[in-house]
Amino acid sequence: MLLTITTTAAPATDLGFLLHKHPDRAQSFEQSFGTAHVFYPEATGERCTAALLLDVDAQALLRARTSVSSPDFSLAQYVNDRPYATSSLFTVALGRVFRSALRGSCRARPELARTPLPLELRMPAVPCRSGAERARALFEPLGWTVDAEPVPLDPGLPGWGDSHYLSLTLTGTVRLSEALSHLYVLLPAMDGSKHYWVDRSEVDKLLRAGGLPGTAPRTAVDGPSAAGEATPSASAPEAPGEDGDGTDGPDADVGWLAGHPERDWITRRYLNRRDAYVRTALARIAEAEDLAEGDGADDPAAEEAETAPPAEGHDERVPTLAEQRAGAVMAVLEAEDATSVIDLGCGSGRLLARLAADRSLTRVTGVDVSVTALEHAHRRTCRGCDPGGGRRHRPLPALTGGAVGANGAPPRPELLVGSVVYRDRRFSGYDAAVLMEVIEHLDPSRLPAMEESVFGAARPRVVVVTTPNAEYNTHYEGLADGSLRHSDHRFEWTRAEFARWADRVAEQYGYRLRRLPVGSEDPETGSPTQMGVFVR
Known about the structure:
The chain is an alpha/beta fold. Helix content is 29%, strand content 19%. It is built from 17 helices and 14 strands.
């Protein structure tokens, strides 16, 4: 198995700083299944190439198995592609040998770790039964130019056709840590068959490598999860970030996995089609998605994808919990004949887009503390607001400073920078207000201020509040007992706790209250989301 990494960013030999491997020395790293070698075929100021060569010991790989009860028993254990194809074995070595580079950690050149570099990655044999088009669909959305050529079964016998292996070359300008994380996740997904037992720790590894915020590194690799499989502590990959060098990588930005058009396919394949883990991973991706886009702490829309993705080969798609929740809010607003709505804590505008598209609403406004989040909301909801025409956008300040539309009316939707914990005259005059997955992002001590701002000062006729049901968290595999669904949540309430809070607020401010479940209900734990509808 071979990977070469080439850069032409002068001085090109700085690649050695990022990889933490000196260009003048060849180094070897023992693995439980063979030896990984790092060397530099070329190293000049103009061009530098680092190579990772994995020499797999087939006998050592066989000895790592503790039982003959696995599907690989018999001849397949001795005759397979593991020594040659860039598969999950290779990502194990990649994660260990280039651990600091994956993390984006470089004490000697910290600014270089944050700088996109012109890179060329070459791998001569990548298993991908879905073919070259799949490889392009996976890497091109990440900014790579993809050259994927099928490897013939036998060059001397062209009539035999092509194998399911690709000679893959990726060219692009990206940060080295991102480039390695793309390989760390996408190579096993393309292969679709890991050599080690997949347990719930794989969910965290996937999310960390996918760039999602709020995924703290583990301190140790878990032990074996099932008899008859390779021991994870010996041959499973360590997650990017388990460096132990006491340095932090660059701050998390938009996680590339959350925004990838093939994220469901990637997640399913990376987790070996383990449905429970896939549901958990997609739930956490959806929960963190808008926060990763930079919307501060209050984007309600991208929450748990509580339902499973469609099975491969089927087109039917089950609505995610985030979609069910937004649909439930829209249904309540329609039932209450709301004519104008303010979305408090709109984040990047997922619900706001649905509100703006509803022509029965005469006025729609989104509020968030984060200008970055409002930028995302603006681009999501705008259909070409620049007077010059086309689909160009006016700068956001033009839409948050009292601008008017072409007919003299406020733009649709209006976007305001503000916070629900402060009284604001701009929040008044609306028929309905929505706080969808917002209150759990507030410190409990700030809840009274929010209540006074929304229910006391703004005082809309209808207020819709949704928040997670803590009792339902037991259904999320990989979420430890007592843990919250997202690192930014300050609390999560049980149904009884939410009922006490909602009853008190309704009585104090003169509202009638009804509580509704959102999402599939469990007889014991209830629904994943709980909703309160306050009407006066």
